[in-house]
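Whiteboard transcription, Tuesday session. T.W. wrote the structure tokens on the left side:
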């Protein structure tokens, strides 16, 4: 499926504005594109206890899945403007639960500074129970 990469990155950049990152100060936004063209956004939400911290990617996945959507084409993840932020290991596994290896993953800081890869490249031999 063809999609507008810059528009998806801009949605992730908008979501990044809502990030709650008082501890790491590493603000992240994500925009998850479903096969039916809907975009679900998320931002990282830190917590004093650390383990309940929610990454932007998992926030976007939770929003989509809670609305019955489970078929995705791409995700854009943006961190600081000078970075090409990639999903953490936990987020890679969560994405693998709902996406196939061909999911396009845009990793960036802006809509001009990004790299594109696939979930399969980020998580080779991902784990599934089914």
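and on the right, the sequence the group agreed on:
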């Amino acid at each position: 499926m063809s999609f507008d990469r810059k528009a998806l990155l801009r949605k992730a950049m908008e979501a990044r504005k809502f990030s709650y990152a008082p501890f790491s100060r590493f603000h992240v936004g994500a925009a998850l594109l479903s096969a039916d063209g809907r975009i679900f956004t998320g931002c990282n939400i830190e917590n004093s206890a650390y383990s309940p911290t929610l990454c932007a990617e998992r926030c976007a996945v939770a929003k989509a899945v809670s609305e019955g959507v489970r078929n995705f084409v791409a995700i854009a993840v943006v961190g600081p403007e000078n970075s090409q932020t990639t999903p953490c290991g936990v987020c890679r596994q969560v994405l693998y639960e709902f996406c196939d290896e061909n999911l396009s993953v845009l990793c960036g800081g802006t809509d001009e500074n990004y790299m594109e890869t696939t979930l399969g490249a980020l998580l080779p031999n991902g784990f599934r129970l089914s």
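Someone added at the bottom: The mean pLDDT is 96.
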